[in-house]
Task: inverse folding
């Protein structure tokens, strides 16, 4: 998807800093890959499992 960390934060009601920290963790877990204004989902099942907890 094409968006900034600030865009994501506004959409879900959290700060840009919180989005950045969370996306960095997800990237470390190899669930996503981030590049300029892009978030590529690498492991959809892991993300869905995380949301269920």
Result:
């Amino acid at each position: 998807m094409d968006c900034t960390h600030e865009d994501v934060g506004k959409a879900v009601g959290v700060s840009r800093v919180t989005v950045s920290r969370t996306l960095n963790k997800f990237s470390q877990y190899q669930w996503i890959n981030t590049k300029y204004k892009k978030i590529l989902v690498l492991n959809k099942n892991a993300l869905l499992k995380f949301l269920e907890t």
Notes: The chain has a mean pLDDT of 94.
